[in-house]
Specification:
The chain is of the alpha+beta class. The chain contains five helices and eight strands; from the N terminus they run βββββββαβαααα.
């Protein structure tokens, strides 16, 4: 019996997802987990031994997953290129290099950290009234039509900015921890 850690990978609608963090672009294998007893499926990232499985290119990610026999999206549903989420603007705001938070980057960091935490068994404390208000403002700025708006620019209260900085700071730690060296 091998002592190598096993791979844990998404079971449905999986494909490469690109991210830019600390100036480095990498790809992960992302899809839906097997449905639980309640029928819900969670977004999952491929892991091994509690670490994210990362690739230097979209092609490398596809090749590995196909060779390993991991479930994928159907060939006709494949995008020509994987989306690359740029998380660096959120990091720049946390470091004081930006005066305002970039809502797209902040929402991507928050959402991906939720998936990282679920996939690796780490804790990410993103619940609570003020935290949920912050998330709603980021979501509305990115998807205003979900609120019957044409556009939305968040107006942040000082307490919300403190909480947003706290949540995103924690997100960076949770996100970086399971990245391979």
């Amino acid at each position: 019996m091998s002592s190598e850690p096993r791979y844990v990978f998404p079971m449905d609608n999986a494909q490469p997802e690109g991210m830019r963090l600390d100036g480095r672009t990498f790809f992960v294998w992302r899809g839906l987990d097997a449905a639980g007893d309640d029928g819900d499926q969670e977004d999952r990232l491929a892991t091994r031994g509690g670490k994210l499985v990362v690739f230097d290119s979209e092609e490398e990610c596809w090749s590995f997953a196909l060779e390993a026999g991991w479930p994928t999206i159907t060939p006709e549903d494949r995008d020509s290129d994987a989306q690359v989420m740029d998380l660096d603007p959120a990091l720049d705001w946390l470091r004081g290099r930006r005066a305002t938070v970039d809502p797209a980057s902040a929402l991507d960091l928050w959402n991906m950290t939720t998936e990282v935490a679920f996939s690796t068994g780490r804790r990410f404390d993103d619940r609570g009234r003020v935290r949920e208000n912050c998330y709603t403002k980021l979501f509305a700025a990115n998807v205003p039509y979900a609120f019957d708006l044409v556009a939305y620019v968040p107006r942040w209260k000082p307490q919300e900015l403190r909480v947003l900085r706290e949540v995103l700071g924690q997100a960076v730690h949770v996100f970086r921890e399971p990245l391979p060296a």
